[in-house]
Amino acid sequence: MVDPVRLKPRRPCPICKKPSTQKFHPFCSSHCSQVDLNRWLGGNYAIPAVESEEGTDTDLDIDPQKD
Ligand SMILES: [Zn+2]
Description:
The protein is mainly α.
C-alpha cells in the first residue's frame, strides 16, 4: 500500500512548514536544509526547551511576599 500523501509533488518544508522548492527539496531554502542537517549531526534533535519553559518560569518569578 502506498500512502497517496507521499505522492504529492510538493510537501511543506519539514523545518518551517513553508512550501518547499525544487532547488532545496524537500526544504524551502538552503537555510532550512542546513538546520535539518545540524539537528542530526549535533545530536540535539530533541531539546525540551518548551517544556522546561513552562515548568520553571513560575517558581522563580512569582514571589508575592517579597517587597
Ligand atoms: Zn523552511
